Amino acid sequence: MTTLLLIPGLVSDDFVWRSLQTLRPAVVACITQQASIPEMARDLLTRHPGRLILAGHSLGGRVALEMARMAPGRIAGIALLNTGTHPKREGEEAKRQAMIDLCNRDGMAALAAQWVPGMMNAEAVPDPQVIANLTAMVCRMTPEIHERQLRALLARPDAAATLDYQGPMLLVVGRQDIWSPVAQHQDIARICPQARLEIIEDAGHFAPVEQPDSVARLLADWAQGVADRDAGQDRIPDTPLFDRPRANLGYALNKMAMSLSSPEGRAAFLADEAAYLNRFELSEEQRAAVARRDWAEMVRLGGNLFYILKISAVDPTPIRAIGAAQAGMSLDEFLDTRLGKVTNG
Q1: Is residue 96 scored above 60 in pLDDT?
Q2: Helical H runs in the chain?
Q3: Is the per-residue pLDDT at 244 higher than 80?
Q4: 339: pLDDT confidence band, cut at 50, 70 and 90?
Q5: What is the C-alpha to C-alpha distance for residues 334 and 329, in angstroms, rounded to an integer?
Q6: What is the pLDDT confidence band of residue 197, given thresholds at 50, 70 and 90?
Q7: Positive or negative torsion for Cα 311, 335, 233, 17
Q8: For residue 169, which phi and psi values (nearest 5 degrees)?
Q9: Pair 284, 46: CB distance under 8 Å
Q10: Does the pLDDT value for residue 343 go beyond 60?
Q11: Would you say 141 and 114 are in contact if contact means Cβ atoms under 8 Å apart?
Q12: pLDDT at 344
């Protein structure tokens, strides 16, 4: 089953996504405790296993892109709302520091009073209730969260330099967004020609809140289409399809496994397995699956059975036991039902 994971932006929470959640089941991510965008991405990949459809707003969009860079085979689709891919710009640090100083000195209400109005469509009189709701959301955060997230933004990766996601992508931007303008999303669309760009009229940086019904319906319909297509990828029940995304996902795992073809590799693996795995860029999930000798999970994480069987040479593990694990059976059950061997008299 594919999970729709909603990633809020700076000092934001589930309020941004409430209209969408009335239309489609989804999980709201938390990025308030991690110190960097890569750390946010790694944490969300660990906390939310399986196939994911990502929707990220502002800072959350950058986290979504980093997740796709780290684990492309797990991402069924990405929706980026009011975001960008450029690295830190000249003069940005001083402006961010001024906001940090304001918040640390005067508190979250003072930050909201200065920050929230500028996020809205400047060509219209803002709805007082929307301003009040966004202010309440900001005040649910703390100065520590605000500073941590701004420091993460200042140290952000250059997402445009590594953007190679080829799956379904939806770009959503408010016509009057001056913080992440339409041009930034057009830049992303040029890098990712498969992307669909939708411009929301009469909306600024908080398009999902300023025009909640139209944005929510747009996202819900797009996510349903992605989920429907993704459900047809692995047509043999419970059998992962070894396609290009999964091959990309498993590259480091398969490279490590093939290195065990040599006596030197096996000796080093047996001497210090953790240190040996450090030579390769395995994800935390892949490292854990290798440690458990969880063959089915290794395959789900991109392991090609012809490669990961090399791992069995160091234990050694009988091929029958691997077959049982792949089938989700005990060894005795596997021998009885799949090989026709009577094991109990």
Answers
A1: yes
A2: 18-21, 37-47, 59-70, 92-106, 108-115, 128-139, 143-154, 159-162, 182-191, 207-210, 212-231, 244-249, 251-259, 263-271, 273-277, 284-292, 295-300, 305-308, 319-327, 331-338
A3: no
A4: low
A5: 6
A6: very high
A7: negative
A8: -140, 135
A9: yes
A10: no
A11: no
A12: 44
**3-class secondary structure, 254:** helix
Cβ neighbours of 134 (radius 10 Å): 24
> 3-state DSSP call for residue 171?
strand
What amino acid occupies position 303?
Answer: G
pTM score of the predicted model: 0.70
User: Coil, strand, or helix at residue 202?
Assistant: coil
Residue 230 dihedral angles phi and psi, to the nearest 5°: -65, -35
Contacts 24+ apart (CB under 8 A), 130-139: 130/206, 130/209, 130/210, 133/15, 133/209, 134/15, 134/206, 134/209, 135/109, 136/15, 137/11, 137/12, 137/13, 137/15, 137/16, 138/11, 138/12, 138/108, 138/111, 138/112, 139/108, 139/109, 139/112
The per-residue pLDDT for range 294-322, each reduced to its tens digit, is 888 898 888 998 898 889 888 777 777 77
- Rounded to whole angstroms, what are the CA distances from 322 to 36, 77, 100, 256, 298? 38, 32, 54, 18, 11
CB 19 within 8 A of CB 212: yes
Which residue is associated with the tokens 């940086």? 205
d(CA 173, CA 208) in angstroms, rounded, equals: 9
Which position has the higher pLDDT, 230 or 259?
259
C-alpha 218/C-alpha 224 separation (Å) is 10
Distance CA(107)–CA(330), nearest Å, equals: 58
Alpha-carbon distance of 33 to 79, in angstroms, equals 23
The residue to which tokens 């009073």 are assigned: 113
Give the residue carrying structure tokens 């089915």: 296
Q: Which tokens go with 43?
A: 């944490």
Average pLDDT over residues 192-208: 96
- Answer left, alpha or beta for residue 342, where phi above 0 means left and psi between -120 and 50 means alpha: beta
**Burial of residue 143 (number of CB atoms within 10 Å: 0-12, 13-18, 19+):** middle
